[in-house]
Design a protein that fits this description.
Blueprint lengths: L1 H19 L6 H5 L3 E3 L5 E2 L10 E7 L27 H4 L5 E2 L2 E8 L8 H14 L9 H18 L4 E7 L1 H12 L6 E5 L7 H7 L1 H17 L4 E5 L20 E5 L29 H10 L1 H9 L1
Parallel strand pairs: 3-5, 3-6, 6-7, 7-8, 8-9
Antiparallel strand pairs: 1-2, 1-5, 4-5
Amino acid sequence: MKKIILFICLIFFLNNSFAETLNYKDLDKLSKINSFVDEKGKSYPIENIENKKNSIVIIYNHGSTNDHKKDSCKKNPSPGYIWQGAVVPAILKLHNQTIKDNKILIYRVCSGVKGMSLKNQKKYKKQLKENGKIKLVDEFKNLKRQKIILNEVEKLLSLGFENIILSGYSAGAWASLNLQSRFPKKIKGTIAINPAFAGKMHEWKKKYPEWGAFRKTQIDTMINSQTLNAIVFAHNKDKFEDQETLSFLKNFKDLNFVDYSDLKPTSCTWADVDRKMESDKGHNIPQSTCFTKYVEKNNYFINYIETLF
């Protein structure tokens, strides 16, 4: 009898040990916002889902602000307000579409806890200057977000959802790529839109070289995994990462790299004001209906998802 009780306790511990490590400030508050959303971005309860086994869950992950700050992730953001954690409209369009008898569902995750303090960031900048390398012992925000997202994947799998795809914009896209490369058995693929996390290119290249070093550790992780199944969207007018800085991704045989630089920012409208974007706003294009039309015209998302099932 004692052996049976010990065995049950062990199983309970193993099933919950990952979640117990995530003692990040504000995570509980942010996690309450996580939910399935419809084509308009409105939340609905999991009880509304009748067939979990024959569902494809696309977990959406938002962008990020400065590492020492918490990301904005509102409960009911306006359509296209990606700076408030809203799902990219082109992703929402996938809601309830069917792929080989599997219905697509969208699950929005709010994971933007505070990352590394400014003091710690300066510590690594000094370490890099003195030693030519860093020894990372602290977690920057994207590392924390990857653990948070993976925890949500584990929860959905435990609830009976078998088909998980990650999607994301900016820092959310970067985290999604990293996770898929490390956990391909749990995460079937990734839709990555303008992936970035280390700041603007001129910053991680020169002004804040420590972020260039952090970025390299992330790239090395993906490369060392030797596998990455994803569709990636990059733009030459993106100030954070462009088609050149992301070219290392082209080495993965199961990755579809889409350079959508032919879609000009000046032909796209901001989500919150009726005004065309400036010519250097390639990173902001996904909030606009122009990106949704571009994706649908080329059937990028559906074609990619069909390769996974």
